[in-house]
Amino acid sequence: MSRATRATPTPAPATPVPTAPAPGRSAPTAPAPSGIRFDGVTVSYGGNVVLDRLDLTVEPGEVMALLGPSGSGKTTALRAVAGFVRPASGRVFLGGRDVTALPPHRRGIGMVVQSYALFPHLKVKDNVAFGLKAHRTPKAEIPGRVAEALELVGMATYAERHPRELSGGQQQRVAIARALAIRPGVLLLDEPLSALDARLRSGMLAELARLHRELPDVSILYVTHDQVEALTLADRIAVMDRARLQDCGTPRELYRRPRTEFTASFVGNANLLPVTVTGDGSVGLGDRPLTVPTGTAAPGATATLCVRPHLVGLGAGPNALTGTVTEVQWRGSTHRLHADVDGHPVMADLRELREPPALGTPVTLHFAPEDAVLLPAGAAGTAGVGP
Amino acid sequence: MTATTGTARTGAAVTATAAAPARSRTVPAWVWALPPVAVLALAFLYPLTLVVQQSFTPDEGGLSLDPYAEVFASASFRDALTTTVWLALGSTAGCLVLGFVLALVIAFVPFPGGKAVARFVDVFLSFPSFLITLALLFIYGSVGMANGLWTGATGAADGPFHFLTTPWGVLLAEITYFTPFVMRPLLAAFSQLDTGQLEVASSLGAGPVRIIRRVILPEALPALAAGGSLVLVMCLNEFGIVLFTGAKGVTTLPMLVYSKAILESDYAAACVVAVVNIAISVGLYSLYRVVSRRAGA
């Protein structure tokens, strides 16, 4: 499904409009209801709207990342699925079942939080068994299920330890095993890696990807502010900002064809240049004519041109931009060049240069027309004018 | 480094403080401890030794265990000991149950004014114990409000509430007064509890009762033990509450000390009872220290 879309080398077709909820599905055949649907979910605290009419569907077996800065409403959305916040309006469906009025302990979801929140007085195996006991799993079945869950995260040899005897990464694995032991159809991950250091984080990312391959029926809602985590792990990313869903699509779609300035700058780096549409396929950056796909944008309209820094080349070429070098950063395998082009900052990520240009010297940059995307000017949150 | 060489040079006089800071170059650290120790010894330890010494000195003079034998053999002492212990245990149990429930509500059930209530608990700790008893007297005493309402309404000569002068009255007063002493450490422990644990527990299918029993209670045990042993010690030594309820039949060890010393002028016996009381308190206090250290308090 979306995973296949991601593997396709060509740009994916235009994203479906994020505000279009999928039609209601019948309960899947999986043991636990899988799939999540937000239907116009609004949450407010004391008149302050923290989640504004969210419509979003997570398919059974899909990994959906909720990506956004803090205060964007992404965690609130997750908490609405878990049942810790009651929506002011709208419905939440799990596996096609309306769970809006159900208390958290009746929803049968797995949840992993940033702090892991292992029960400190219980051994690893008892932490994992907690949910099974709460679900009144037959006693004889529990040891097997606990071993199975710990095996899944590679923590089988730590069953007799207490949480305080484990490292952060190990605690996090136990937290995942505890959530998976009840065989939930939906797994909620709330910033699960942000308490880990960078190296552990990339290891855990691979681990989570493997887990998902082993549990293909589980829908995962993954809340993060880290675009790398979202790009790496998610089948689709829902970009949130200021309590609203801004954009939703596969990582490739969002990265290559962002529909808003916010998405462009939040998912990967972006050069955003204010331009005016001058004709079909041509825009002007000030007086500088540029050739880019203009799609349906009418001549005379103002728009924002988005070009990824790594798609900007050094030297003359199509869409040449001349300016002066303002900063050069060496990043090992690349150089990041900051230039000033007619008063607009432009970044270029270039393969390591033997002789990087000196500060203040003139420089010419260029980009291919097909690498540029025209966005509606400064209109985060409204529909895009993608090609 | 410099401190070590410095003390080494000043010689053997400071061997006991070899690791002390540079100040010890001129004055050994133990000298600074002398004034407070002297004051403590004079004002506190000396009278205490007198009490212990008196407890071994019968009226006839000399030094013997007779006062102990006499007191231990007396029914009034054994009654007082039993009363003291069961009242203390009962009050402690009551405080633990009530304190746990109240602290749970204050910590986990958001209600307007919750913070103010938590702060009031702190203020409550500073109240004198007899104040509570006095307040209860106003309500349940023989001429208190409750009985007044009853006699006013029925025309009876006497109200139905007489429990205040019974051990139950003492129990009620002690539970009322000491419950905040249990709540204080509990509220501190609850504020340390990661709410993520409660949320994960409920996502795993645990209802409120299971969460309280399996997550909150186990993690609050050290705080409960610390608060409980503190209250137990304080109940054993409580004098004001027992005196103010005016419960004639309720004689605790501190009351017995009072009546032996002040009313009967039997100082030897009073001191014996006092020593027993001190021994129980110190024993329990040691237990409290051990428990609270394990709780990290």
From TrEMBL, chain B:
TM annotation in the entry: 29-48, 85-111, 123-141, 161-183, 220-247, 267-288
Residues of the ABC transmembrane type-1 domain: 81-288
Keyword Cytoplasm belongs to the record: no
Organism field: Streptomyces californicus
Record membrane topology: Multi-pass membrane protein
UniProt name for this protein: 2-aminoethylphosphonate ABC transporter permease subunit
Pfam families xref list: BPD_transp_1
Family: Belongs to the binding-protein-dependent transport system permease family.
PROSITE patterns: ABC_TM1 (PS50928)
Gene3D superfamilies the record matches: MetI-like (1.10.3720.10)
Cellular localization per UniProt: Cell inner membrane; Cell membrane
Single GO cellular component term: plasma membrane
